[in-house]
Amino acid sequence: MIEFKSGLCNQLLINPRLPDEEKKILAGLKNAFEKEFGDRDYFLVPSSGSSKSAEQSVKLIALHLESVLNSARRANFYLNAKQDNNWGLFLPEFHVAGLGILARAYLARAEVKKFTFSVEDFAANISMHQVSFLSLVPAQIFDLVSAGIRAPASVKKVFVGGGFLNPLLKTQIAQLDWPVTETYGMTETGSMVAVREGTKPYFELMPGVSAKVEEDLLSLRCDSLLSATVQKSGDEVSVVKFDRGGWLKTDDVAVIHETESTTYLELLGRKSDYIKILGEGVSLSELRSKLQIAGTGLGIDSRSYEIVAGEHPRSGYQLVLVVEDRIPEILRQDLVNLFNKSSRPFERISKVLVLRQIPRSELGKLKTAELKSIIKDAE
Fold it and tell me: Rounded distance, CA 37 to CA 7, Å?
């Protein structure tokens, strides 16, 4: 059980379904961290998809208790959350999003209603327990739209993180009366630091969060930053310390827009999402959004396909559509045709790879390094 009192032993958030060997590795990372930071008042949260090779473990993000609570205070202030506003937990507790919900409810002295996500009884559970606030990921939003599930009257706000909603899906979920707010944040910031309401083009920084851009990359400063990361590479374990009062440099390409009272973020994707094909600059982030719009229009589950860049000896890179075998071949071809029809010649999909399952985290986030390894082996 996760607790938020000061002075408690460090809490390692771990997926109970992990193999024993991986649990042992994470326990070893926890021990390495505690040799430098002590054994009290930290949450150690695995960052999904953080390993870049087979020799690397996932990365543990060390968040001080106060960082987690400061993030929760920020969210509660934004929502004006009260004791009688129940929270619905449909995400894993071992992820920073689940941890954040528990922390918000703790500070507001509100109840948390825990559920396994199921479209069939989703709305009924929310209504029965009078849930006001909840967090979901885009794949769950897709499921609600596909099933035509309307929002119960008790729902005041649904935070959506772990990936951005494409415009078509955002329109469709709004038509079902779900009060959706997109969020931007990461484990390293203790959860969300910016929000985007309705059809607004940019994310708005939350109170107490500062941002700057250097060499196109976004840096953030707030009172909920991490204290350290811990990761094993080969036989070596490294503990990297961070200044909780300083700037955190991200891998996100961004543009800042400011008014007298508000700072907005235009998020353009990860640094690694920018490649060149035949000398032309290509944003994989923009292409993924275009592909998701096409897939949503065809009624294809957004978890069943991805677009990635594979190396090519002549053009530098080629675009590969990775699709799960549960999608009929005729739909795969429709998806390729619809995407290519609206794309520039060098941005068209030139190869399709069919897999039994695309590697993803518990929240549906793509395990990029693992997928690239699969693609390379298939060449």
Answer: 13
Where along the chain do its domains lie? Answer: 11-269, 278-378
Residue 54: pLDDT band by 50, 70, 90 thresholds? Answer: low
Q: Please give the backbone phi and psi of residue 316, each rounded to the nearest 5 degrees, phi first.
A: 95, -55
Average pLDDT over residues 175-180: 97
Write down the pLDDT at residue 368. Answer: 83
pLDDT more than 90, % of the chain = 77
Please give the CATH architecture assigned to the domain spanning 11-269: 3-Layer(aba) Sandwich (3.40)
Q: Tell me: the pLDDT tens digits for 221-236?
A: 999 999 999 999 888 9
Query: In this structure, what token pair is assigned to residue 205?
Result: 């920084």
Top-level class of domain 278-378:
alpha beta
For 76, 144, 159, 354, the CA distances from 376, given in Å and listed in that order, are 45, 35, 36, 14
C-beta of residue 128 within 8 angstroms of C-beta of residue 150: no
